[in-house]
C-alpha cells in the first residue's frame, strides 16, 4: 500500500470548515490503496473546538504530533476576545478598529510571514527529517491555510527528493482578509515571493476552484488540479422541518459578508406581508460579526433573529436539514470569485433550497445553477433576491418547498477521494 504523509494544522478536535477536507480524505484514502500518515501540532490554539469530529478518525490512522509555538497564545494574555476573533478570521471594519486591534493586525501581518504558524516550520522539518528516514514515504502533501505549512513541504522535498503536493483550500495573496493585515510594501513582496516559490517548487498543485486554478496558472508551469470540497453522508437522524419560515446562515458571518440587500429585502417583506412577518425567522449559526448584527438591527430585524452561536458539526448538519431555506454569502470582491465555501456542498446534500449572494462571476454560482439547488444573486440584484424570497415563501405556505437536485454525486467525499487517489498513484 502506498504511504503518503499529510501535513495539516487543522485536525480534530478543531472545529470549523478548515478541518473537514483532509479529515474526510484521510477517512477514505485506505479504500483506494493509500495509507495516510498525518502530521499535526501537539498543542495548537484552535479558535473553534468540536470534540465530536474525533469519531471520524480511524484508530488505524498513524498520527504524528509535534509541539508548536503559537503567537496567538501570547496575544491572548492581552486580549483573549480579540485574539480569538482575529485567529478565526473575524476582522473588524477598519474604521471601527481599536488601537489594540490595529496593533495586533500589524504584528500578525508583518512579524509572522506568511502567517502566525510560521514558528512551527523549523521544528517540523527537524522532526519529520528523522521520521522520513527509512519510512518508505515518497509523497508529501501540505495543506493551507496556514500557508506556512507549504514551507515544510518545500524543505522536505529539497532534503529527500520526495514528491510534494501543495493543496490550497484558499488562495494566498489574493484571499479576502489579506488586505486587512496592514502589510508594509516589503511584507507584501515577501508574501508574493513565498507564494511564487511554493507554486514553482511543488510537483503538483491542488486547488478547490476553477478561478484559483486560472490564477495560479499565471504564476507557474507546474500542473494545477481542481479537487473541490464536498459532502459526506452524515449519520444524523431526520427531523421535521422548522414550523417557521427559517432562513438559516451556518458558519462564520464576517463583517465583509454583510449582504445589506438581503436585510433591505427582508425588512420590506416584513412590512409588506403580514403572513411573512408572522412566519419569518432568521437563524444565525456560528460566529457573527458585530457589523452584521448592527446592520440587522438597523433594518428592524432583531426580533426575528435566532442567534444560536457556534454548534457542533453534527448539530449544524441537523439544523441545515431542518431549515426551510439556507443562506450562503460571500464577500463582494473580484478576489473572492474563487471561493467555493465548503458548506455549499453540505447545503446541497441537505435537500433544502439555497440562496447564494456573491460577486459577479463567482465559481459557486455555476455549481448552484448546474445542480439545480437554489438561486444565486449578485449584490446589485436586489429585486431578483426579493423575488426569490417571495417564491420560496409562497412554496412554504403551500407546503411544497423543496429542491430537486441533480448531479450531486460528483461532490461526494468518496468520489473526490478517488480523484485524489488517482493523482497520488500518478506521482
TrEMBL record:
Describe the location of the Glycosyltransferase subfamily 4-like N-terminal domain by residue ranges. Answer: 112-234
Which terms are listed as keywords in the entry? Transferase
Q: Is Transferase one of the keywords UniProt gives this record?
A: yes
Top-level taxon: Bacteria
GO MF term set: glycosyltransferase activity
Q: Its Gene Ontology biological processes?
A: lipopolysaccharide biosynthetic process
Q: Which Pfam families match?
A: Glyco_trans_1_4, Glyco_transf_4
Residues spanning the membrane: none
What InterPro entries does the annotation carry? Glyco_trans_4-like_N
Is Ligase there in the keyword field? Answer: no
What's the name of the protein? Glycosyl transferase family 1
Amino acid at each position: 500500500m502506498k504511504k503518503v504523509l499529510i501535513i495539516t494544522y487543522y485536525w480534530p478536535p478543531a472545529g470549523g470548515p478548515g478541518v473537514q477536507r483532509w479529515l474526510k480524505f484521510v477517512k477514505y484514502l485506505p479504500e483506494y490503496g493509500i495509507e495516510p500518515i498525518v502530521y499535526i501540532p501537539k498543542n495548537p490554539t484552535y479558535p473553534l473546538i468540536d470534540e465530536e469530529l474525533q469519531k471520524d478518525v480511524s484508530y488505524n490512522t498513524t498520527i504524528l504530533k509535534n509541539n508548536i509555538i503559537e503567537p496567538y497564545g501570547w496575544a491572548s494574555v492581552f486580549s483573549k476576545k480579540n485574539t480569538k476573533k482575529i485567529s478565526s478570521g473575524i476582522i473588524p471594519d477598519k474604521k471601527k478598529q481599536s488601537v489594540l486591534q490595529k496593533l495586533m493586525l500589524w504584528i500578525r501581518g508583518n512579524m509572522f510571514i506568511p502567517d502566525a504558524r510560521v514558528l512551527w516550520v523549523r521544528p517540523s522539518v527537524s522532526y519529520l527529517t528523522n521520521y522520513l528516514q527509512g519510512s518508505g514515504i515518497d509523497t508529501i502533501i501540505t495543506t493551507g491555510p496556514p500557508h506556512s505549512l507549504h514551507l515544510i513541504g518545500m524543505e522536505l522535498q529539497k532534503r529527500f527528493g520526495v514528491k510534494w503536493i501543495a493543496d490550497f483550500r484558499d488562495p494566498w495573496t489574493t484571499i479576502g482578509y489579506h488586505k486587512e493585515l496592514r502589510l508594509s510594501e516589503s511584507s507584501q513582496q515577501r508574501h508574493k515571493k513565498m507564494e511564487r516559490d511554493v507554486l514553482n517548487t511543488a510537483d503538483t498543485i491542488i486547488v478547490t476552484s476553477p478561478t484559483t486554478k486560472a490564477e495560479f496558472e499565471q504564476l507557474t508551469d507546474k500542473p494545477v488540479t481542481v479537487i473541490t470540497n464536498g459532502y459526506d453522508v452524515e449519520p444524523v437522524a431526520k427531523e421535521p422541518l422548522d414550523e417557521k419560515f427559517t432562513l438559516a446562515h451556518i458558519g462564520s458571518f464576517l463583517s465583509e459578508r454583510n449582504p445589506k440587500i438581503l436585510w433591505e429585502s427582508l425588512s420590506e417583506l416584513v412590512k409588506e406581508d403580514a403572513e411573512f412577518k408572522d412566519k419569518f425567522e432568521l437563524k444565525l449559526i456560528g460566529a457573527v460579526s458585530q457589523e452584521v448584527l448592527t446592520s440587522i438591527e438597523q433594518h428592524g430585524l432583531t426580533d426575528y433573529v435566532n442567534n444560536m452561536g457556534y454548534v457542533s458539526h453534527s448539530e449544524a448538519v441537523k439544523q441545515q436539514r431542518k431549515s426551510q431555506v439556507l443562506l450562503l454569502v460571500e464577500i463582494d470582491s473580484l478576489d473572492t470569485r474563487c471561493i467555493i465555501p465548503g458548506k455549499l456542498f453540505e447545503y446541497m446534500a441537505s435537500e433544502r433550497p439555497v440562496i447564494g449572494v456573491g460577486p459577479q462571476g463567482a465559481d459557486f454560482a455555476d455549481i448552484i445553477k448546474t445542480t439545480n439547488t437554489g438561486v444565486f444573486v449578485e449584490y446589485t440584484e436586489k429585486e431578483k433576491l426579493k423575488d426569490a424570497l417571495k417564491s420560496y415563501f409562497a412554496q412554504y405556505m403551500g407546503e411544497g418547498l423543496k429542491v430537486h437536485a441533480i448531479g450531486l454525486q460528483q461532490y461526494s467525499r468518496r468520489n473526490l477521494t478517488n480523484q485524489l487517489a488517482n493523482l497520488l498513484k500518478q506521482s
